[in-house]
Design a protein that fits this description.
By secondary structure, this protein is mostly helical. About 75% of the residues lie in helices and about 0% in strands.
């Protein structure tokens, strides 16, 4: 972490509480999200309890995108105007616990789907609240937020190791194809709902009408706050389109290529996340938030280029490299994006702004990306009438690579208008500016 004077650092107790919040947030989700597809597959058609129909894994994946479209912004408005963020976090986590238990108890496909939709309508507002609580209470959020956010990644890793290795080691039985992870998720969300009441109060900030995200400001009004934020949210939609390809198809690809223990192998990406999160404060001070976000978009293009090459080359190194590059892909887009939104929104509207970013990235971006990758799957992987399916992975991976390149072009086109308010000019930009002035 860059050097900061003690009065500009948050206390250790606060850092630990916020880190525990992040750990529980992503533990409760990671405990079941990775294995739920295995549970569905084990109960599809005539298998298991015969709950689900063919194709349910595919169309149920839209629940997450739908859940992140509007609910985070609505809850964000409530946190900005009426209620303490910690109370809203407690309520949304109670909703997550209820929805997890509802899925655990469901014996019909449609009941399960309704509970799944309810879960994501609670989860994404909860994520927006954890972001808002952290950013509002940290004294030096630009340097300290990435360090706190590391705990969320560690929570996800710990949950996966507990379900995939810890439980079988203790009991001798695998639970990946059972309902038990859903019950673990419910209990974990209930624990976070209780713990949320011990977090900093985080009441609604004093309302500042001049900073409101209104139609006037979005159209270029005097404040200049709304327009940069709106432009960044639009750029975020395109930046997140291609993430669906890796999240939905990488495990299948690794299995078909014969890599050992694909689920465990993919955790190399989370280790990369931790490294990038710790490096983010140092990088922000030197290149700035905007440049890191651009690097994240470029990293997605590089990842898919490596996967396309790995499908043709005899060696496996491009595939391993594509997994390891997950850190820049995730941290520099999704985490740095949260930090940019925090700067662009201003003090009084952080909650709703974080909700809008979640809706743009995980909502609209993933929904449009899922549609695009579904078309790519139909064209290159499992086209109708071809048996066995050809699985032309090289051509398939080039589609999200092209999407990432297009997203980078769009982002660069709005670059100059996106300097976050209050961000110090990075050292690299200062040197560039000095060089330009010397040539005038």
């Amino acid at each position: 972490m860059p050097h900061a004077e003690p009065e500009h650092r948050s206390s250790l107790g606060l850092m630990l509480r916020l880190s525990a919040m992040m750990f529980l947030q992503y533990w409760s989700f990671g405990a079941w999200a990775v294995t739920v597809g295995t549970y569905i597959a084990a109960n599809t058609g005539e298998e298991g309890a015969a709950i689900f129909s063919a194709g349910f894994i595919g169309y149920s994946s839209a629940a997450g995108a739908i859940g992140s479209l509007l609910s985070p912004a609505i809850v964000g408005i409530l946190s900005d105007r009426y209620f303490s963020a910690r109370r809203l976090l407690a309520v949304t986590q109670l909703g997550c616990a209820a929805a997890n238990w509802g899925m655990h108890q469901s014996r019909s496909e449609w009941t399960f789907l309704l509970w799944l939709l309810a879960y994501f309508h609670c989860l994404f507002p909860a994520i927006a609240m954890t972001n808002a609580i952290g950013l509002r209470n940290l004294r030096n959020s630009q340097a300290e937020y990435p360090v706190v956010r590391v705990a969320g990644t560690l929570g996800w890793i710990a949950a996966g190791l507990f379900v995939g290795m810890g439980w079988p080691w203790a009991t001798g039985v695998s639970i990946e194809a059972t309902r038990i992870p859903l019950a673990i998720g419910a209990a974990s969300s209930l624990l976070l709902a209780i713990f949320a009441l011990a977090l900093p109060a985080t009441p609604p900030p004093q309302r500042q009408p001049s900073m409101a995200i209104t139609a006037t400001s979005v159209s270029g009004g005097a404040t200049g706050v709304g327009r940069p934020l709106a432009m960044f949210l639009i750029a975020s939609v395109f930046a997140c389109l291609s993430s669906v390809a890796y999240n939905s198809y990488a495990n299948l690809y690794l299995n078909q290529r014969g890599f050992p223990n694909p689920a465990a192998l993919m955790t190399m990406g989370q280790v990369s996340d931790v490294v990038c999160l710790f490096a983010t404060p140092w990088l922000v001070a030197r290149v700035g938030l905007r440049a890191l976000f651009a690097a994240g978009i470029a990293a997605w293009a590089v990842r898919y280029g490596l996967l396309a090459g790995g499908s043709r080359l005899a060696g496996d190194w491009p595939v391993y490299a594509a997994i390891v590059v997950h850190g820049p892909c995730f941290v520099f887009v999704f985490v740095v994006g949260v930090m940019i939104v925090d700067k662009l929104a201003g003090e009084a509207y952080r909650g709703v702004a974080q909700g809008l970013f979640t809706g743009a990235s995980t909502g609209a971006g993933n929904l449009l990306g899922a549609f695009a990758m579904g078309l790519a799957q139909t064209r290159f992987l499992t086209p109708a009438g071809e048996s066995p399916p050809p699985y032309r992975w090289s051509e398939f991976w080039l589609v999200p690579a092209a999407m990432s390149v297009a997203a980078g072009i769009i982002y660069v086109s709005v670059w100059k208008s996106l300097r976050p308010r209050g961000e110090a000019q990075p050292a690299g930009e200062r040197r560039e500016a000095q060089g330009e002035s010397s040539t005038v």
